[in-house]
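S1.2 Input.
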Amino acid sequence: MQIKKIKGESILDSKGQETISVHIETDFGVFSASSPNGTSTGKYEKKAFSDSVKDSIDKIESLKLDKHFNKFNDLIFLESEVAKKFKLINNIGANALLALEIAILKAIAFQKKKQLWELIGEGKSPLLVGNCIGGGLHAHNSIKPDFQEFLFIPKEKPERAIEINLRAHRLAEEILQEKDGKFENKKNYENAWQTSLPDNRVLHIMEDIKEELEKFLHVKIGIGLDIAASTFFKKHYNYKNPEKIRNKEEQVRYVNSLIETFNLAYVEDPLDEEDFENFSKLNKKAMIVGDDLICTQIDRLEKAIKLKSINAVIVKPNQNGSLLQVKKFVDICKKNKIITIFSHRSGETQDSWLADLAYGFKADFLKCGIIGEERMVKLRRLAEITKS
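S1.3 Output.
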């Protein structure tokens, strides 16, 4: 497969923010891919665009790729050409590089009569992590939980897990209508319910939903949190609902008490993104998940492994941009028995490639919301892959 022309286009993500779609014209047709945007972005993410979306578009359109692309590792040539022209591969922006690489893989897959995920590996079905109730930076209401996401993790195959999470979402609406006098039936950026209730009360609601669904559907469901602690950390952890200041040691004790009290299966970013040392003090009976701590960067992953900070990690391909680096990142995780969770972003697009990447890289989990077209297109794609 040979690339004849590269074209970039500015599009809007699900939050209405500008991002990039890349189209490549090949001898087999035109293939496209788009990249998402985050809201509570980690300090160590690669820059999404160079100076602007337009600048990133100008740069990728200037590339001349005189090579036939036939397999995943041909991305080595692409990245060497980008580095040669722009000094560093991410000088075109992580979102631009990622969208270009995905478009190339889509074209190769078409040429080879394969699925996108087959270019990566043999594949394995991940479990789903679904965002049901939200707070923090993702919510628009003035009074809200301090934690960013309250998550359900059905221990079922994707097709059934999708339906279980949809039921949980509907049940959460009914309970919030009853228990939250300020509930307005509104959803946040990821289509999770917005509430004015504090974290502990939301966790009790999550427990009630879990118990009801497990009883009537005969399933096992885990409860998870994305605390996104860096978003309310400034020397101390500054809680607003209710107002409370915790120092680093108190935050560790508080998170460990939540893990025990609510039998949490999953806790993401419970501490500030610089605090590798205290991450190691958290109760590893739960998945202690690094997102802002790691930002899909290999050097930070290696530091976390060395200090035993985490036992699970978020993989957001556009935090890095390079799929070659994502592959190396996942390989290091597998070698060190670190659980991998491929994740969407709050500002998503209609593209479904995340499901193929999660399956192809044999991720343990796919975190992809519960409802909303930008989320469902990925969930439906995963269900399609796992049924075939």
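S1.4 Remarks. The radius of gyration is 21 Å.
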